[in-house]
Amino acid sequence: MNVVILQPSYIPWRGYFDQVRRADLFIFYDDIQYDKHGWRNRNQIKTHQGKQWLTIPVNSKGVTQGVPIKDVRIDWSKPWAKSHFKTLTISYSKAPHYKGYLPLLDELYQRRDEFLADFTIEASIRLARELGLASTRFMRSSELSNIEGQKTDRVINVLKQVGATHYLCGPSASSYMEPEKFDAAGITFEYMDYTYPEYPQMHPPYDPYVSILDLLFMTGSKAGDFFEKQKEQEYEHG
Question: Residue 14: which domain range?
Answer without folding.
Answer: 2-143+195-237
